[in-house]
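Supplementary material to the annual report.
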Amino acid sequence: MTESNPILEVNNLFASTDDLPILKGVSITVYPGEIHAIMGRNGCGKSTLSKIIAGHPSYNITEGEINFSGKNVNSLEPEERAQSGIFLGFQYPIEIPGVSNLEFLRVSTNARRKFLKKEELDTFDFEDLVKEKLELVKMDSAFLSRSVNQGFSGGEKKRNEILQMALLEPKIAILDETDSGLDIDALRIVASGIKKIANNKTGIILITHYQRLLDEIKPDYVHVMSDGQIIKTGGSDLALELEKNGYEWTDNFVKEK
Amino acid sequence: MVNENLVKDVVKEPYKYGFVTDIETEKISKGLNEDIIRLISTKKEEPEYLLNFRLNAFKKWQQMKEPNWAELGYEEINYQDIIYYSAPKQKEKISSLDEVDPKLLETFDKLGIPLTEQKKLTNVAVDAVFDSVSIATTFREELAEHGVIFCSISEAVKNHSDLIEKYLGSVVPATDNYFAALNSAVFSDGSFVYIPKGVACPMDLSSYFRINSGDSGQFERTLIIAEESSSVSYLEGCTAPMFDTNTLHAAVVELIALDDASIKYSTVQNWYAGNEEGVGGIFNFVTKRGKCLGNRSKISWSQVETGSAITWKYPSCLLLGEESIGEFYSVALTNNLQQADTGTKMIHIGPKTKSTIVSKGISAGHSKNSYRGLVKMGTKAIGAKNYSQCDSMLIGDQASANTFPYITSQQQNSEIEHEASTCRISEDQLFYLQSRGIEFEEAVSMMVSGFCRDVFNQLPMEFAAEADKLLALKLEGSVG
Amino acid sequence: MEIIERIKTNKLFSNPTEIQKLCLKKLQSNPLPNLKSELWRLSNKSKFSNFLDFSLNGNSTNFEFPYQNNSKNIIRLIIGENSPTNINNEDYSINELNNEELIAYIKKNLSSFDQNENWSELLNLCLSFEQNILGLRIQGTKIPPLEILSHASNDYINAKTLILIVEKNCNLDLLQINLGTENSSLSHSTYLCLEENSFVNHGMVAYGEKKSNLLNSLNVIQQQNSEYNLGTLHFKFNYARFEIRIKQSSGNARTNIKGMQITKNDEQIATYTKIEFNGPNGFLDQINKSLADDKSHAIFEGSIIVPKIAQKTDASQLSRNLLLSNHAQIDTKPQLEIIADDVKCKHGATISQLNEEELFYMRSRGLTLAEASKLQLGSFFKEIISFIPVPKGRWDLLNKLLKQD
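Predicted assembly:
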């Protein structure tokens, strides 16, 4: 029964950067086909959690473990995690001048395909594939000839992230504030892209603090984070509650504790 | 933190051209004096004017002082301890390639420059220079059909004496600088190119310089003349074996472009750089200069400098003709204890002249990488324009990157714009690439070649790929 | 060059002070800078010897500075004339350094001086008479703007020296005015120490009259968490050379510099700056503007030095130049020397003329070419002038620039 095995299992994770504790015991389990949302104020540790799962070198795991497809990935390099199917959609995708977007997409796609023991794609085959995926996010092929994210608008950067997700076909995608800085049309394009990529074998974690993305993509679980911990987990109605009542109570929650 | 050791490992590829060809050579005795110069001239059966050119240069050289302004640190060169002429022994007159010593052909084969009829590169004509002499030049007949002359400079002295007498030393005078004077006194061989009026050279021309002996210097001289409305693309490659002594390479390159002519000169320099402790390696002290004599003429330098213990080189353009164009695209990579002081001079003399400078310096290890350039607008350079961009990438905290742009203008109707910046491979960029599954080494080399893209775009196709690979090899292990 | 002869033969003074003796010793065997070196190669040789071709004058002649001090809100000091009264009150204090402090401070600087690089300072200290050295220690906040004036006397070379120690947490607006008079040379040096957490807005304005010469050097040490804003303006000198040396002694400091020089006729004005970061997290934002007209020559050379210890330095330097005549010349050389890898450094330089499109636009709306040029020049100047801390209206710098012929 592979269906019942979790894709991602984060167990009691503690992490710090420059000796400053950021995560203070986070646990979250994602099964195939599930959509999770993590919500919380700025600075509550949501983005850090996503970076740590993707293997960002600035953070140290001091306790706990991250299991992906049943294997501990704590010590894997970021590229190894990516190749095996962990995808992080960045909140602020970085600009890399001089590196062509097309070339970048091709190399990363092939790295993933190599891991999956699929045939690597040459330039022509890859162009066919990428054009097909461009449709998903309604991007113009002119984006491909530019440098990675350079001079892209906020919305274009986010769509470029989803394009990468479409190409890499991850098993789990953690999308860090993919909705921020998007107007409503762009938000719909991005959301429909995500929905088309997701299937009953993939897991998705949406990190956000607004309801509006969750209106488009309905989560199965909503987690509320505060001060490096998940303080409450519920169904999609929890997000509505947050929208209505705000986050203030989460601060008190920690204080009370 | 980016893993410093990992990046260091990425740069440790051994120098693969470090072998020595075991071949009987004819060398003259060490040292430099008038007799030696006369001997070189006699060996090459030179006319009187050339001997005088040499002797005059030697006289001036003796009165000159070795420059030290570039702040390059190296032990004093003993000019009496160098052999100024070394040639592989072979038959006096070679009528075809079949008579070339197979060992020599094998050498160039190993270097990836096959010369024989069956194997030679199909789209590039090659002049192969081994120590002091030119071994072979391919595609001569084909080129001759178009009136293009491509041969060693020694041959040109014999067969095209009028052109040599007219142009040799006309761009880089014998007394221009210390190393140019030395070269003018003792130059042994090099390439000569003449493109007649209206001819677009049908293929790329290329010289490949190989230093083989450890105790001889290399002093080649290249002269390229592009007549009205002609064009040529010329490539230059260099390697040398690994010796633990320093070998001096003091070349002079002169380019002349007449009305509407264009010359593109590309170099991939991969002389032996010495070992990790800085022992051995080539001292690369080169004078390269082009004269845009004609209206609307164009000279474009592109260079990828990765080798040599010390590089001291400023390919320059004298922009005399109206609307003439000068370009300089450079990537200089230094690692370990290498030192590079390189850049260009764009001297705008004629009206509406334009120049573009794009320089990318990458310093790793304990190396020192400096851009030094001059842009000058003379009083008659009405409507002239220059744009310069000099970027440095630092890898590790032991390397240094300097930028010294000298900018001067005497013409109000001209514009100069210079920009420079320094960056390093940022951790966030690396992480982004890695998080998409790209291996660390590949991510680093993608970033470095992205950094150099503006320059690589200027290189001829085969060269660009080679340069990219070369950079990746050189960088292995150096990113921190 | 009588002065140089006297330095060589050790006959400058009958009774030299301790400092003068020390400096003489450094200059005696080699009394001139190396005019072929990078720092001096562009200096006009005949103008340089013209600078030195005056007799030394230690006494102040009567000189009427413009804009008499009629406001209690400004403290005006004239080097060599009025000895400063020590001011001590609740918010702040300004006290003269005593002789030992002065000597100790100068000696500390002297030990690191190089004959060629610090020639201007060495000459200044050689020539400065005791009464022409003003040393102050400043403490506190809410200090009224401090105005410190120097001038040269006709037909003489004068040397004036200012030493200012700005103590911890102090907050100061300082305006220095150096005036040249007809046929004169002024050697002026300023030493400024910004202690931790201090904040200084510094204006350095210098202008001359016919055949005035100026050799002006400024040495600044910034301790951590200090912020130094410098606005400078040099114009109307036959020959002027302004050298700025700033050292962030342990990084973690902020430096903003906006400088400007204007040359006309056959004048030569040069600005040399050297900014050193001796610790991490330093910040520099520098812009230097030059404008050269007629047969004049404007020079800017700036270097930024970022050693290994100065990680996370953020430095930018821009040289913007306008060449307004075909007989004028502009030289510029912004330099970066970097060893640290985690830094953000950039520099840029442009040489151009007034923007033709803008001129045309204004003229198409009915302005004359002269009016349009003036407007453009005004905007070119304004960024710099508004950075110089001058109480409103006083000194009227913009008008002075636009009106000068």
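Chain A has one domain: 8-256.
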